[in-house]
Amino acid sequence: MNVTKVLDAKGLACPMPIVKTKKAIGEIESGQVLEIHATDKGAVKDLAAWTESTGHELLKHEDDNGVLKFWVQKG
């Protein structure tokens, strides 16, 4: 996957991963991909809901030894 920017949101509690994601997505162009690393378990539901409500696409997510990784394509 061609990632444009990586956001480290590890150790941040809700709502900070979403706040940081919103800022980072504003720094890339439409169609580009933002990779997000978080440790807050709530980020799974939060990011899915946020991408749906903002017109971005959650391409995939995975749990890598407790680090949640997300790939979001800017709408």
From TrEMBL:
Keywords recorded for this protein, A-Z: Transferase
Record SUPFAM superfamilies: SirA-like
Domain UPF0033: 7-31
Keyword Ribonucleoprotein set for record: no
GO MF annotation list: transferase activity
Gene3D superfamilies in the cross-refs: TusA-like domain
Cross-referenced PROSITE patterns: UPF0033
InterPro entries with a match to the protein in the record: TusA-like, TusA-like_sf
Classification via Pfam families: TusA (PF01206)
Family: Belongs to the sulfur carrier protein TusA family.
PANTHER family: SULFUR CARRIER PROTEIN YEDF-RELATED
Protein name in the entry: TusA-related sulfurtransferase
Native organism: Cytobacillus oceanisediminis
Taxonomic lineage of the native organism: Bacteria, Bacillati, Bacillota, Bacilli, Bacillales
